[in-house]
Every structure is written in structure tokens, then in C-alpha cells.
Amino acid sequence: MACPRRAGASPPSTRMARMVSRRTLLGATAGSLVTGAACLGLIEAAVLPGRAPLRRTLGMDGPDTPLPDTEGGPSVAGEFGSAARGGKTVRWRAAYPPGMVASAQLPVVIALHAEDGDHRFPFDTLGADRYLAEVDPDDQPHLYPCRSLLDAG
After folding, report:
1. Do residues 52 and 61 lie in contact, with contact meaning Cβ atoms separated by under 8 Å?
2. Which of 7, 51, 102, 152 is deepest in the core (most CB within 10 A)?
3. What is the rounded distance in angstroms from the CA atom of residue 126 to the CA atom of residue 93?
4. How far apart are CA 81 and CA 59, in angstroms?
5. Has this prediction a pTM greater than 0.90?
6. Which among 64, 41, 62, 36 has a CA at the least distance from the CA of 51?
7. Strand 88-95 relative to strand 75-82: parallel, antiparallel, unpaired?
8. Tens digit of pLDDT for each residue in 138-153?
């Protein structure tokens, strides 16, 4: 004896959830792979943020380069209130090659740090002052004192 159907109920064959077809599943998988590859490409091209964490996670960052054994030259540090940052105190640090004085006309390298870093990062972590100490000014014809660039205009 068959169970009576309620009025307006669907027949048993259409009541069951529809099965996903193989073609739909393959299309969705291919679309997901293409989207993922595009996102990875945009991250690697630095269009989207996250390149460093992605490389670190995938083991693509490699070992750190050892810092030079050279002793860095003297450095000067200070701070000022930045109008561009709403009066926030901004700290800075400048390093000179060994044997130079603070009034010497030298090429300038500006090293910026990440959001969580500070003015010490280029020197304490990256060793910028030690690399600077290894530069031979007589062997660098493409470097010019900053003052000559300012006086040219």
C-alpha cells in the first residue's frame, strides 16, 4: 500500500537534491585553480600585498646573508615632530663611513623600514652602516655629493 501524497508535494524523483554533474565539478575546480594562480601571480608581482609572508610560508625566502665583519662608522640620531604625521615624533639615524666627519659632503642612502620597524632597523638588523663602511669612494664614479645636486638647479 503506497503512502498517500500530500496535496502540492513534488513527486519522489524531483524531491531529492540534484546531483552535481561531472562537467560542473570540473569547471568549478578549473575556475578555482585559475583564480588561485592569478592571485599568486598578483602577489608575486607586488600588485597585491603579502609577498614576504607568502614566500616565507612556501620556504622561498632563503637563508639570511651574513653581515660584513667590518665595523661601522660613526652615526648620529635625532627626532623631530612631523607635521605630515599630525605632530607625531619621528626618529632618524644617519651613519657615516669610518674616518668621515659629520660635515663631509657624501652621497646619501635613504633606508625605510616596515610598519613595525623603527629607525634602528636598517643598521641593527640589515647592517647598512657595515656595508657603507666597505664602499670605496674612489671606486664609485656614479656617486655624487648631495650638495652638487642641489646647487645644479
Report:
1. yes
2. 51
3. 14
4. 40
5. no
6. 41
7. antiparallel
8. 665 444 444 433 344 4
Instruction: Report DSSP state, residue 6.
Output: P
Q: Are 97 and 134 in contact (CB under 8 A)?
A: no
d(CA 131, CA 146): 20
C-alpha cell at 64: 639570511
User: Residue written as cell 638647479?
Assistant: 153
Residue 98 in grid coordinates: 669610518
Residue 145 grid cell: 655629493
Q: Hey, which residues does 88 pair with through a beta bridge?
A: 82
Contact (CB, 8 A) for 93 and 66:
no
> Rounded distance, CA 150 to CA 143, Å?
14
- Amino acid in the structure at residue 62: G
Q: What span, in angstroms and rounded, lies between the C-alpha atoms of 121 and 127?
A: 9
Strands of 5-114 (E only): list them: 75-82, 88-95
